[in-house]
Amino acid sequence: MISGLCEKHYRRLRKWSKLFLHKSKLKFYPPKFVLRDPILEGVHQAMFSGHQVAVVVMTISNLREFSQQLEPVQLEEYKRDLRAGFKSIVEDSPYNSDLLVVHDYYSEGLTIFFKINDDKQSVVYIENLIRTLVPRLERWMFTKYPYFNQSFEIGYMFIEREHSTIQDALYTAQQQAVAMAEKRIQSRYIETLLKMRDIIQKQDISLLAQPIIDLSTNQIKAWEFLTRGPKDTAFESPLQLFSLARQSNLIYDLELLVLEKAFHLINSVGCMDDVFLNFTPITLGNKRFIPGLEKLLTRYPDIEPRRMIFEVTERDSIEGLKFFHDNIKQLRQKGFRIAVDDTGAGYSSLHTISELLPDIIKIDRSVIQDIDTSKVKESMLKGLILIARETGSLVVAEGIEKKEEAEVLKRNQVDLAQGYFYAKPGQLQKDRVALV
């Protein structure tokens, strides 16, 4: 009887032991990148609740130069001040609630984890965050170390949910972010750059389509085209694809390729509905954009500009883009329409709308989510609808996931809606769409 119990416990121990890494496996992970439980738990909890998690790496450009002038104790004090300064600045910013962890996994700077609510514009959110916080950090550090000329190199990456473990995913994302920040490590950066150029040269992207519904008729009125990178690669995720394209200064080339793919898809399936395409102000404000568009229109003469809507994200600044307003004017002269995307998600909605007087206002999912249980959100919706009526804009509500939300939109006479409640993105075909 005793030997039987021992055998039973032994089998149980062997079964549970398979859940833990053997110490021989640890050689594949750098010792300085062993994660503490609070970090793992924080990232896991954020991802489990549906957030994206971004890893932002900040390296000090010339730390090696002035670290030679500091004693080891002083250098550690400098790094502590750097962490404390960043936390202090974030606490006094709109990004405070999204900060998960500030750590020094990378010995010459910081690794910061942020959670982000909205998948679609996560890249724009992180870049705005960097543009806002980093200059403030540089000024803060200069007050403490005025004898050092301090500047930072930034790289970021999003943690992929598909990895077998969170630790694997964190390590991969952090290493990619380091490669983007540390352009001095030329082999990694050039490898990424060549991959992006290869994707663009081979046109190795595909487009999915999500229907946009006319709420007065419950019929499909339009489609939004969504980009995916090479299948079964890290670049298949639009987050990774567009974040790396922006960091390697290839966002214009990638988005012009998206436009060409969209024209080809519309022609090949004979799509007669309206089509929405997301473009960054960086691309729409590029002096090459209108000549590039005209070449595509010559190649695809059946494309009707009146059926094409260029979405400008509200979260990306249009300030300081020399050719932006002139390009928008020329687009309208050719018959294209303009939409302001993500209205209600950022801090400059009214300014962007007043600047562009868009044909269409797209209301962000953050306003729509659980609007059926929030009088405040419904009041926000009514305010945005009132603005849209004043500017003569149609209203599209994004991110509808349940019947109750759709009913609130109908009650408030929203024009158009899209979201998983109606359909997930799928392959556009001649018989309209094969849902995935």
TrEMBL record:
It comes from the Bacteria. PROSITE patterns: EAL. InterPro entries: Cyclic-di-GMP_PDE-like (IPR050706), EAL_dom (IPR001633), EAL_sf (IPR035919). Residues 189-436 form the EAL domain. PANTHER family: CYCLIC DI-GMP PHOSPHODIESTERASE PDEF, SIGNALING PROTEIN. This is EAL domain-containing protein.
